[in-house]
Amino acid sequence: MHQAAELFSLAATVPAILSGCIVIALFGREAIKATAEEARDASQWLIMGITIGFIGSVLDNAYWAIPWTASYLRSPDKFWLVDLGVYFNCVFRQGCGIAAAYCHFRSALTFRDRSDGTRRVVAALMWSSILLGASYAVILFFAAQ
């Protein structure tokens, strides 16, 4: 069953990467233009978020196809390839995901009345998540000692 799931995942990786590249091609030029603007409107923030999110997804999928292929082929290289994956996750999964979410927040908040408190709630949730993530890492660090 596990090998069937790996094979399906590898097969699905091809359309995931290709469709992501198409999204990047469709929105990328507008996202680049938006980065040059001093004041961005909601659609520009949304386009930037979509583009960043799909860039991260394409690169993350492209990397993980390699260790999963090694795993499917029962290659001993799968172990160091999986270990190397954490670096790709930091940049492409978590980094691009956070940056894309920020752009989406900015887009959504452009539509909101500034007095409704949503900006404060979103900011508080983001800072809380950073504090919680850092605390989790510190706890793990000391637990592993």
Structure description:
The chain is mostly helical and 145 residues long. Helix content is 86%, strand content 0%. The chain folds into two domains: 2-111; 113-145. 18% of the residues are buried. α1 (2-36) packs antiparallel against α2 (42-72) and α2 (42-72) runs antiparallel to α3 (78-110). It has helices spanning 2-36, 42-72, 78-110, 118-143. It starts with a helix and ends with a helix. The model has no long low-confidence stretch (mean pLDDT 93). The longest helix has 35 residues, at 2-36.
Short structural summary:
By secondary structure, the protein is an all-alpha fold.
* Net shape: flat
Mean residue pLDDT:
93
Q: Low-confidence spans: pLDDT under 50, at least 5 residues?
A: none
Element pattern in H and E:
HHHH
Number of domains: 2
Terminal CA distance: 37 Å
Q: Pairing-aware structural class of the strands and helices?
A: mainly alpha
Treating each run of at least 4 consecutive H or I residues as one helix, how many helices? 4
Number of strands: 0
**Helix percentage:** over 70%
Strand percentage lies at under 5%
How does the major sheet shape up? Answer: none
Integer-rounded radius of gyration = 19 Å
Question: How are the SSEs placed, and which strands pair?
Answer:
Elements: H1 2-36, H2 42-72, H3 78-110, H4 118-143
Helix pairs in contact: 1-2, 2-3
